Amino acid sequence: MLRRAFVSGLAALAAVPAVPGAARAGAGAPFDPDALRRMAQERASRPFTLRPTVPQAWLDLKYEQYSTIRYKPEQQVWRDTDTPLRMEFFPNGLYYPFAVGIHVVENGRTRRVAYDPAVFARGDTVPDLPQGDALGYSGFRLLTELETADIFQEFFVMQGASYFRAHAPGQVYGISGRGLALKTAEPEGEEFPEFTDFWVLRPEPGAEVFRVYALLDSPSTTGLYRFDIRPGPLIGMEVSAELFPRKAMTHVGLGALTSMFFFDETNRDQHPDFRPAVHDSDGLLIFNGAGERLWRPLANPKTLQVSAFLDENPKGFGLMQRERQFDDFADLVARYELRPSLWVTPGEDWGRGAVTLVEIPTDREIYDNIVAYWRPAELIEPGASYAFSYRLDWGAMPEGARAVAPVINTRMGPRHEGGIVVAIDFGPHAVLPDDPAELGRMVRATRGRVGDPSLNRNPETGGLRLDFTFFPEGATLSEMRAQLTLDGRGVSEVWLYRWTA
């Protein structure tokens, strides 16, 4: 009986007429999230197959050409209605070889959006391009009234594999979320699951939360995701997912984040540039199951680095951008000080595993070279489903109130007399005493030697600066740890750093 219900549900969805242009025509078919779940489950029972790619001429477009293909605002879905949401689409081409299925759900019925080249305007440098059945949309963006009534601003994008991005008011895009990371940094290569189909629900007038369903597929698994998105001073997303593995998955990344780190004050001497720093994120923050807050400054290493922070039932983690002044970057175009931080809060106990950080060498700022995710210790077997949930918050300080003094910057450089000077700035906090001499200074290194640390007030930040000299003494790698304590308890974040020669 379940099989018949599933087949009839698929038939109903398949029979939905494609909707031209801005998706305003046709009655559609009944929408049922359970049918989407069954669709993902049934797809997992079949071998994975690649979707057809668009004609090669589209993929041969240069970035400057592709970026001139613009969606016409007058073609927005739900334009000139009382719905508090607008939607636009992206074309295929360049980095996006596969079309995705996009459906709108209105009044309990679903309709597929038909590909219509007339919704795009294109620049003069774009050549005549071949058409074909594989052409379609590569993703979509959502717009709403973020700051001003009747002014619809973009705040959310889904495009490419399982990537998506968001930013709060006054910010610009930077870090990306990912539906799932598989086999990241494995020698045999990473697997990139893709969202192949989306269902965007039309919200009621006055609604503050927008819902999107996404169907995921890859050689290892299929899955169904639900995103409940709440725009505001922080962009909040409640994510619920259920995976249906095709094969055993030993290296899975949940709540995966992808960002860029090129250089800052820790490796400034290696990158001649007029700017003092270039990065979308400057550190990994972990609120672990033991209640510690760990801060790990990011690095652009000479060789691939993978760090695993073992934990049980983490309270949260995220890639953060803590430098927030223009002078921190001095870049009038990229505006890195406006890039959002992204914080992950598990929706249930995630058990044993590790917050995993992957740092990939890069020689250009255009490449995302940082990945962070939760890697469960348990093996995820085929034949059953695996459900999980989490919350994503995007903004300047999405991790919430800081219970201890935060690390706000790390600087490193060679010392003339030998060794490497390490300076850690802790921000002001009520938990810090007036007299720095009352504080303990815990500094350790797994290899090499650290000199006696000193602690002084920093009049520029209103906080404290801890500095010490690190002597490698022939070491090629050393894990360093530092923290301020008062009466035996931690009053600062735990600063962690992997130094490599």
User: Measured on Cα atoms, how large is the radius of gyration?
Assistant: 24 Å
Question: What does the overall shape look like?
Answer: globular
CATH architecture call of the largest domain: Distorted Sandwich
Number of domains: 3
The protein's oligomeric status is single chain
Q: The CATH topology of the largest domain, please?
A: Beta-galactosidase, Chain A, domain 5
Mean pLDDT: 93
Question: Cα distance, first to last residue?
Answer: 63 Å
Catalogue the unreliable spans: 1-25
The CATH class of the largest domain is: Mainly Beta
* Relative strand content: 35-45%
Tally the helices: 4
Number of DSSP E strands: 35
In helices, the fraction of residues equals: under 10%
Main pleated sheet: 16 strands, mixed
* Overall SS class: mainly beta
